């Protein structure tokens, strides 16, 4: 659907995007991540035809954004971080103006407006001036204009900013539904949002692509392993003897206390989904009660922080603790 090849954008001596290459497939939601100044907005402005490039090529659905701009732009709906709203218009008037600018025929105009307003939840405020709408509703009107003319690619820059928790849930569900029919690129600083709605992640730093893959793949790829923390009712030697033979266990650290319990830190080489069961069964076979079991692994946030540090300062990803797997 989208092919970006060796894209570079320079402003004088400053390089905002450098030799950026990636492919965006149809029918998926992509999270576009990077710290401030990484080149995200520059890249999105080039993808939407709002900005030229110094070097490189961008094709959308087979059309070159530089050589065939009209046909490429017709396939893109864009919501910038600051929605391009005319606040002196009502929501309906504004959306009608945008639809006509996008080439929607008069005969189809009313139906197109109703569709866009319905899916974004602005029908009830359609005849109110945009200046009188809350920030959340203004954001919804901005998303509605991106959906007009039924584009095959939707690019959203921070689409949930200013929304209340219920609206955030609704917009995330909308993004997921859009991804079943279109290609969606979502730029956001909310990493939990990426995990909630995105199929794949593109992470850039200093204008270059530093990682891509599913959220789970990135967490697994940049994790040095998984650690399980347990509290059992047993002595240190007894607990180690039960767990050390378990396949996949690399190391067991045991710290007993005076109450007859033992805190265990179990390092495993991979991220096998059934490892918690293996550990529980091994302890159960020796009749050792498990009072608590927690699993830690690098989170998407840890990966983001590790990969966007300058070279030579990259820390090892931290590990995320998942509670509630087993408790006393």
Chain-wise SSE layout:
Layout: E1 2-11, E2 14-24, E3 29-33, H1 40-47, E4 55-60, E5 63-64, H2 69-73, E6 76-79, H3 91-101, H4 106-120, H5 135-147, E7 153-157, H6 165-179, E8 183-187, H7 191-197, E9 200-205, E10 208-213, H8 215-221, E11 226-232, H9 236-243, E12 249-256, E13 262-268, H10 275-285, E14 290-297, H11 300-307, E15 320-327
Parallel strand pairs: 3-8, 3-9, 6-7, 7-8
Antiparallel strand pairs: 1-2, 1-4, 4-5, 9-10, 11-13, 11-14, 12-13, 14-15
Helix pairs in contact: 3-4, 4-5
Strand order across the biggest sheet?
6-7-8-3-9-10
CATH architecture identity of the largest domain = 3-Layer(aba) Sandwich
**Continuous helix count:** 11
User: Roughly how many Å apart are the termini?
Assistant: 51 Å
- CATH C-level label of the largest domain: Alpha Beta
Could you say which overall geometry the principal axes of the C-alpha atoms support?
elongated
Number of domains: 2
What is the radius of gyration computed over CA atoms, rounded to a whole number of angstroms?
25 Å
Order of helices and strands: EEEHEEHEHHHEHEHEEHEHEEHEHE
The share of residues in helices is 25-40%
As residue ranges, the low-confidence spans are: 311-328
Say what the CATH topology of the largest domain is.
Answer: Rossmann fold
How confident is the prediction overall: mean pLDDT?
A: 88
Described by strand count, sense and barrel closure, the largest sheet is: 6 strands, mixed
Structural class: alpha/beta
